[in-house]
Amino acid sequence: MYFPYMRGKQFELVALKTVAARLKTDKVFPIIEPVNDNLTQLISCIQSLNQYKISPHIIINPEVGDLANDSPDSLNLEIAKTGTSFIPCIRINNQNLQYVTNLLDQFIEDNVNYSLYFQEGILSKVDHYTHKAMYNIIREINRYPDDFANKLPNSVVINDSFPAKSRNADYSNTPQFFSDAHLTFTKPLVEHQVGFGDYLTIDETWTTGGGPAFVIALHITYIDNDTTHMYVKHSVSISNPGDQSNPAGKFREALEELIKFSHITPSLNKNTLGFQEYVIIHQNGNYPGLGVPKKLSMMHHIETISDFL
């Protein structure tokens, strides 16, 4: 099972809403960490997912953004009163344990389904909570003692798989290995693993926004037909890398490279909604701004994995 980890930025929520109808509802379980205090777009996204019988896992005590808080009570109530179907997911570490156990006790008493998102191995005994959780989510398996990770039932491992660079100009033109988690989760990495996840075509680092780019890079993932490993292709603009002029022209350069690559790469899934939108933009010659490509690459990535599983 695949657990894409998304932050509640507008383009991420729109990506999830748009691709929802294409997802295998028994294979894909989105995790959303809300970051904006205006919950309108988040609620709209949950409602769209519910239409296709998807109940996302919502981190009700986010670590970053406007809603960063160790106490999960208020956000859980805000979302719950909208009548949407979601799984409250509680971020848990040694520092916030006292804040979350009261709510977990209430969830257990009320028979509310919940999931746990561990940020480290917990020093206190938490078996009572982990055994009643739908899923126990951990990130970067090497951050946890083996005896802790291997005791977690129904565990999900989230990896930061995207090979991010600090500058777009530093991305290699050669496709890079992205992940084989869609294969290895069935072996598994930890004793009771049932699923895997990633941060899609961005890394886990939290940023509030970006400015004009000197170089524009588009990212597209694909599962190689021969190895069945996932790779990512970076398509990078080449003109005037020393200034921020002509973003539309630089976008067209990067998009032209992406489309050319797709023609010589039969492994790339060209039927996804995200890739098809790239094709339309290429045919029309318009410049959609830089938020749209991020959305399209995320849509393509989620659908590519969903189709594989």
Any key phrases for this structure?
309 residues, alpha/beta, 3-stranded antiparallel β-sheet, 10 helices, 11 strands, 33% helix, globular
Structure description:
The chain has helices at residues 10-19, 40-51, 73-80, 97-109, 127-130, 146-149, 181-184, 247-263, 273-284, 291-308, and strands spanning 5-7, 31-33, 57-59, 87-92, 115-118, 136-139, 155-159, 176-179, 193-198, 217-223, 230-236. The model has no long low-confidence stretch (mean pLDDT 89). The longest helix is centred in the last third of the chain and has 18 residues, at 291-308. The chain has ten helices and eleven strands. An eight-stranded parallel sheet has the order 1-2-3-4-5-6-7-9, with no helix packed on it. With 309 residues, the chain is α/β, with parallel strands linked by helices.
Quick summary:
The protein has 309 residues and is an alpha/beta fold. The protein contains ten helices and eleven strands.
Helix-strand sequence: EHEHEHEHEHEHEEHEEEHHH
Task: Please report the distance between the alpha carbons of the first and last residues.
Answer: 8 Å
Category by helix and strand content? alpha/beta
Low confidence ranges: none
The Rg value, from CA coordinates, equals 20 Å
Average pLDDT metric = 89
Largest sheet: 8 strands, parallel
- The rough form would be described as globular
